[in-house]
Design goal:
This is uroporphyrinogen-III C-methyltransferase. This protein is of the alpha/beta class. Helix content is 26%, strand content 19%. It binds S-adenosylmethionine.
């Protein structure tokens, strides 16, 4: 049984190991978050089973997913459990691995690019920045089975850190209120990335103060909230404008004309 990270959506962002596992699979159990085109990489004869939320249908309960994986693995099939992003980040991989371990079914994990890193790459915004942000925190604003929960805002409100908030769209106002209430400035930049790394990626800029009042205007696609000074839009014409002549010989390496 191979637990495979499908990355944020673009098939080009799969690892070579993920592509090989898909090509060899006889059964693929996949989540709704898996991007278009990725399932096409599975063996043409592989049985494809959707276990995630799709077109209004609810996902299978975790217990049933565990049982289904075990059922196919015990039939001696080469099973791939395909999850969006990285299986080990808000992917409930732990529950599936524990269940299979308890049945003596060996599990191999193939990592994927998690949404935060995919969105950083597609937007060209570094999550850390020298002198500005020295930590990145992956956090969810979503309670167990959708229930409300109150994160420790004081711990998260680090002015020298970047927050990558998963499953945060519905709780965006509460996130803005919690973080400003814990002392982060209201003008702290927020970037909401919807459908990151997909052809329909959309970006919504706001600030913590605005988000506390209005939430974010993102649509229904998976949306990641990035919060922190490292996201502040670049001041074109200042630090970015380097006079190549001043760099002398070193600059010649950059001269493609
Ligand atoms: C259940 S979590 C799964 C996270 C996944 N395991 C990962 O590593 O990215 C689902 C949340 O991940 C974020 N997410 C996943 N894919 C995304 C994408 N392509 N663009 C933006 N956010 C995404 C959203 O916050 C979404 O609500």
């Amino acid at each position: 049984m191979t637990l495979v990270g499908a990355g944020p959506g673009d098939p080009d962002l799969l690892t070579v190991a993920a592509v090989k596992a898909l090509a060899a699979a006889e059964v693929v159990l996949y989540d709704a978050l898996v991007g278009d085109g990725i399932l096409d990489l599975a063996h043409p004869k592989a049985e494809r089973i959707c276990v995630g939320k799709r077109s209004g249908r609810h996902s299978l309960p975790q217990g049933e997913i565990n049982a289904l994986i075990a059922f196919h693995a015990r039939r001696g099939k080469r099973v791939v459990r395909l999850k969006g992003g990285d299986p080990m980040v808000f992917g409930r991989a732990g529950e599936e691995i524990e269940h299979l371990d308890s049945l003596g079914i060996p599990v191999r994990v193939v990592p994927g690019i998690t949404a935060a890193l995919g969105c950083a790459a597609s937007t060209g915004l570094s999550l850390t920045k020298r002198g500005v942000s020295r930590a990145v925190t992956f956090v969810t604003a979503h309670g167990r089975d959708g229930e409300r929960f109150e994160p420790d805002w004081a711990r998260l409100a680090d002015p020298q850190g970047t927050l990558a908030i998963y499953m945060g769209r519905e709780q965006a106002r509460a996130v803005g209120q919690g973080l400003t209430g814990a002392g982060l400035p209201a003008d702290t930049p927020v970037l909401a990335v919807e459908n990151g790394c997909r052809p329909d990626e959309r970006r919504y800029w706001t600030t913590l103060g605005e988000m506390a009042e209005q939430g974010v205007a993102a649509g229904k696609g998976p949306t990641l909230l990035l919060v922190g000074e490292a996201l502040r839009p670049r001041q074109i014409g200042t630090a970015d404008a380097v006079d190549l002549r001043a760099l002398g010989d070193f600059a010649q390496g950059f001269d493609h004309d």
